[in-house]
Amino acid sequence: xxxxxxxxxxxxxxxxxxxxxxxxxxxxxxxxxxxxxxxxxxxxxxxxxxxxxxxxxxxxxxxxxxxxxxxxxxxxxxxxxxxxxxxxxxxxxxxxxxx
Length: 99
Prior knowledge:
The protein has three helices and no strands. By secondary structure, it is mainly α. It has a single domain (4-97), classed as Chorismate mutase (Chorismate Mutase Domain, subunit A, Up-down Bundle).
């Protein structure tokens, strides 16, 4: 017989699997953003965009108790996205130098 802990861990595992797939999808979009920024000489950081995304997402979040935890989580998502963009920009610059 499953305990509540077993059930909770199964749910967490399912959510983690979904999050991995969504992360891959998001990072593919981030790659598209980086490509556009490379082509148009736009910096990685867009503070206005970040603020508007956070604001929009907090409006969607119905459990206000979770807001600060969501922001911690989402700040990590944004950092990963910016780090990946920087990696792609550096890779592009290195490829350009080696031509």
